[in-house]
Amino acid sequence: MTEDFQAAVAAVGTLTKDPGPQVKLALYALYKQATQGDVQGKRPGMLDFVGRSKYDAWAALAGTTTEQAEADYLAKVAELQAAEGA
Questions:
Q1: What pTM value is reported for the model?
Q2: How many domains does the chain contain in total?
Q3: CATH number, domain with residue 10
Q4: Half-sphere exposure of 2 (CA within 13 A, CB side)
Q5: 20 SS3 class
Q6: Of the candidates 27, 43, 24, which has an alpha carbon nearest to the alpha carbon of residue 35?
């Protein structure tokens, strides 16, 4: 994990505007891919809507390298920070 990535993770907690559920899900998936690699374990059951959504978002990034996931996460956070400044 690079210092820039760690700083971006910390910066997400300081955002004043709620980026919305889809962006949060994308950030979650990128974070998991960058820190743990491809999704592991069984897909949550049909009634676990949140768990299933998280699993599916992460699974969609299968094959993405750690470096690329970190870069995408950094870009997304920079975009959110720019939107807050606008």
A1: 0.93
A2: 1
A3: 1.20.80.10
A4: 12
A5: coil
A6: 27
